[in-house]
Each structure stands twice: as structure tokens, then as C-alpha cells.
Amino acid sequence: xxxxxxxxxxxxxxxxxxxxxxxxxxxxxxxxxxxxxxxxxxxxxxxxxxxxxxxxxxxxxxxxxxxxxxxxxxxxxxxxxxxxxxxxxxxxxxxxxxxxxxxxxxxxxxxxxxxxxxxxxxxxxxxxxxxxxxxxxxxxxxxxxxxxxxxxxxxxxxxxxxxxxxxxxxxxxxxxxxxxxxxxxxxxxxxxxxxxxxxxxxxxxxxxxxxxxxxxxxxxxxxxxxxxxxxxxxxxxxxxxxxxxxxxxxxxxxxxxxxxxxxxxxxxxxxxxxxxxxxxxxxxxxxxxxxxxxxxxxxxxxxxxxxxxxxxxxxxxxxxxxxxxxxxxxxxxxxxxxxxxxxxxxxxxxxxxxxxxxxxxxxxxxxxxxxxxxxxxxxxxxxxxxxxxxxxxxxxxxxxxxxxxxxxxxxxxxxxxxxxxxxxxxxxxxxxxxxxxxxxxxxxxxxxxxxxxxxxxxx
Length: 459
Prior knowledge:
alpha/beta; 459 residues
């Protein structure tokens, strides 16, 4: 049986058996291993068994999960691996895997070259693409450094936003009041050299307040009247739609054409938006009175749905210390709009193996209750699964996630890293799931554990 031995931290010396298929580590009482530290998230990471092999997955923690000193999203485990979470260190042991040398050997191959197709040749990468990917790795670190002058923690959220931006996708950010959602987006816009506009969505906001309106002009000399279109705040590169669910559906729909086709139609005329164009929307899940839930069509146009959690106690102390001072940090521009467009082109042209495409497709299709691959829990809890746009975004998001990390090889770990923010708002639970308190985050995690990667027989 697989075990975890605590080698550092408050419970040093303790050994726990992984006697369940999904073993969650965190600070909440419902976790399988309760961490006695403020340097970890409430549900920080989990170990799960996939096809008889154990894997480690970070659960969007604030300060990350580290495997053998390297921060990971989702990675296979080998006997003797060291896991670091805050001030805890664990050593993973699996007697069955250690006894089977062939299993260990295969896992080493998977870790060195993740998710490669059995007989697929190595992708040929253009030299210019390779150089731009390397530059993006440097830019990512610089962007994180600049944003950290204002925002404490939330590095994973920054990574997800950068992934969406170089994918050309839009983001819906959900979190409790006071978690710096608006500040984070504004800070990101300050670091990127692009035009930024903010719209505060309210119940009395009209579509023309977003897209623009025609005004009557009179020539004083001739008396001739004509209409002139005054562009609204949507004509920018980064649009912050603050508290988007506080405006009626009619006004929300004013964003649909712009988000999908990057243009605005008003009074029979079509106006192209300047690229790049992103909508970064915020939503408060607490106050539902006087709000208008986003329609499924608009939810589907958001590439990512990002949840922001509370900071750790250490981070909150630092927030209190740094944000109550009068001095404001100076932010440096790191990336221009032209460079973002270049990176979007790089992402689209990144080579990707059929193995990764098959896995992303299989993952999206398994979320649909009527599909033959759908697990029993999908048929029990899901009313409507993710559509083909989820497959598209899983593939593009995996490419972008690799580029943000400065890697040329796109693997299934990249798909798993973007699966939750892409799929959580494209799956709709039924009454049974609501009654049992099951949300889409848990269902996506179960899907990641249940859906196997393609094998040799699939080629």
C-alpha cells in the first residue's frame, strides 16, 4: 500500500496510508490529512490513483505544491519522491510500485517526456517559435515580479490570466468581496502596455453605455444635420467588466459580439475592435439579490472561470502591512499589445501530439451524460456537459500553459492544469448534485482521475 511519511512539519514522524483513491491534503476538517499550518490552503493538494499509479495534483493553492523542489500542477509520483507543502515535507512510498521495476521504468519515461504518443516522432519546432517561447518564460517571471509589488500571493491566478491572454480568451473571475479581483486586473493592465477601460455594471446600465451611441450634429453654417457615432468604453484592449452579474441580460448581451467576433454593430454599422481585445469580468458570489445570472452563451464565451480564495494568514499579515502605507509602487511595462498578438500566433502554431488532442477530446466528451465514456457519477450529477468549445480551449489552453512556462513540449499535464478553470462553468449540475452538495469543481477533479490517457490501442 502507498504511504506518506511526514519528514518535516508539526506532525513530523507520522506515517499515513493512502487507503482511498483520492487523498486530499489541506487545512479544512474534511481533508484526509489535516495540516496544522497557516502556510497552506484550505484544500491544498491531492494524491489520486489513476490506472493503478499515483499522481500528485495541486488544487489551485495560494503558495503552490512542490515535488522534489519543483512546483507542479499535476505529476506522476515515484517511490522516494519528496512533496513540499508550506513548512511540511512528505516522502511518498509505494511498495507495490517499487517491487515492479517495469512500472517504475515507465513512470520515469512519463516524467522525462510527458504524454508522448507511443510511436509519434518528435515535433519539428521553428527556430523563431523556440526563441519567442524562451522569451515568454522570462516575461512571465518579470510580470509576476511586477504584480507582486501590488498583489500578495495569487501567483497561480496570475499564471491562469496570462494563459488566457496569450490564448486570446476571456476570463470570468469569481471571489468574495475584498480579495483584490479588480486590483489584480488593473495591475495586470498596468504591466501590459495596452489600453485599459473599466465599466462598473449596474442595473440601470444600457447596452449603448458599453458599445457607444449616435449623436446628432448640426452644421452651424449650412444647418445640415448628421449622426456621428461616439465609441463606448468597449473600444479598448483590456476591458474590466466589474460585477458583470449586476446588470440585466440585455446589457450583458452587448458584450457577446465583441467577445466572439471582435466587433461592434450599432445602428446598422459594424466597427472593428483594435486587437488584442480581452474581457476580464468579475463576479461576487455572495450577494444574489438584485443580480442577473450570466446566460450559458456568455459563460461559454469565457475561456476561464477563475475562483479566488482567501489568502493565508502570513499573506494577510503582509497585505495589512504593505497596503496601509501611503507609498505606491512603480510598475514597469513588460509586454506590448503587438507582442501579445505575436504570442497568440505562436500558441496557435505550437506543435501538439495526437496523444494530447485525444486526451483533451476524451476529457470533454466524458463530461456529457449521454456519451458512452461518461462515468456513472456524470450520469448521476450532470444535467448538461461541456460542448466542443471546451475541447478547443483545452487544447489551446494546454499550448498556452506550456508557452507561459517557457516549454516547447505540450503534454497532458498541461491539459490537466487548465481543465478546472475551463470546464467548471461549462458543466451544469442537476437536482441530485445540488441536494448532495456536489459542485462542478469536485466533478472535474473526479473526471481527471477517471478518464485515462490514450494507450497504444488508440493508435
